[in-house]
Here is the input.
Amino acid sequence: MACTNGKCELSSSVRQLREAGMDALRDGDVDQAENLLRRSVAMSEAGGGVATATANSVYRLGLALHEAGRQDEAAAEFEKALTLVRDRAGCGSKLYQTILGHFARALPARAHPAWDCAVGQ
Here is the structure.
């Protein structure tokens, strides 16, 4: 697919910030991870990024917030990511299932059955 209107540059920048955020999270720097992942989300949303790419960043922000012990914020980000993916790729997509799996393991009380494809769709 050809790149138009700077979408390749946007996608690359969003991905670089997301990867740097995940590197920071793996290194135990949760504050830096959150900062980079929030920038990734904001950049994707402001630039009209593809919903699944935005969802990837939102999902990873949820992971960082969970790691920081901010469960309500983490749940909100997981739910936002699930909605973005469901609306774009469907609840049967691999990305949707990955996010739902992490959400259910991290916050089982919040990942209620309505997010399950068989129930929620």
Summary: Helices lie at 7-26, 30-46, 51-67, 71-89, 94-106, 117-120.
